[in-house]
Amino acid sequence: MTKDQPITLYYSPQTRAAGARVLLEELKVPYQLHVLNMKAGEQRQPAYLAVNPLGKVPAVRVGETLVTEQGGIYLYLADLFPEPGLAPALTDPERGAYVRWLFIYGSCFEPAVVDRYMKREPGSMNETPYASYDALIDMLDDALKAGPYLLGDRLTAADLLWGIALHWTTMIGLVEARPAFQAYMERINSRASIQKVMAEDAAMVAGHEAAAARMKAAS
Ligand SMILES: N[C@@H](CCC(=O)N[C@@H](CS)C(=O)NCC(=O)O)C(=O)O
């Protein structure tokens, strides 16, 4: 059964893979990290391109099953390990809102913040997959003002994804830290799982920088 198979998370610290690791911590399942040093370009080497031809993390392998893309990984893992209750069941009326927020993240929020980061003109509302940045951010604000979580009282895997995403996008000024976002981020980011992953990431990054510098000096 897939559920009892070993889990490998293809990982690099302080990247989008951190959220997938936080989810595994919250699901309380054993996993191993396959760490890629992006500062040394390991994600573009053939060994990793055989896992994800896009050279992007996260990717997760559970037994024979490989999943890439943050939304896909959250959806898959939270369903595979339902015990902590981070995924409304297929028959739960809240399943629709849950899946919507997971997909809004990848289909709307990521393109919106990347457009802003690249200072790209997004085009008209009907040309843009997220309509407009303001419409998207207002929709998120409305959901979080009602709070405390995206689905109301219930914490789901979608909150881990969004809490972490708001943390890095507000930190670099791509998204304004509206009061509802601030309160939500504090709620999510104070979780022990996130604190643990952030602390271990900081140490890992320092090791990667030193290794990349040694490789450069030796070349
Ligand atoms: N669409 C992917 C994007 C993942 C992504 O952009 N990951 C970055 C790290 S934050 C990456 O792997 N970059 C390595 C590279 O492009 O060389 C997802 O949502 O999982």
In CATH, the architecture of the domain at 7-85 and 193-218 is 3-Layer(aba) Sandwich
Task: Specify the number of helices.
Answer: 8
SSE pattern, N- to C-terminal: EHEHEEHHHHHH
Show unreliable segments: none
Shape from CA axes?
globular
Q: How many distinct beta strands?
A: 4
Overall pLDDT score: 96
CATH homology superfamily of the domain at 7-85 and 193-218? Glutaredoxin
| Rg estimate, integer Å | 18 Å
Main pleated-sheet profile: 4 strands, mixed
**What proportion of the residues is helical, as a percent range?**
40-55%
> Which structural class should the secondary elements be placed in?
alpha+beta
- Which CATH C-level class of the domain at 7-85 and 193-218 is it? Alpha Beta
CATH topology category name of the domain at 7-85 and 193-218:
Glutaredoxin
- State the strand order across the main sheet: 2-1-3-4
Small molecules bound in the structure, each named once:
glutathione
Through-space gap between termini? 47 Å
Strand content: 5-15%
Domain GST C-terminal: 91-219
GO molecular function: transferase activity
Pfam families: GST_C_2, GST_N
Keywords: Transferase
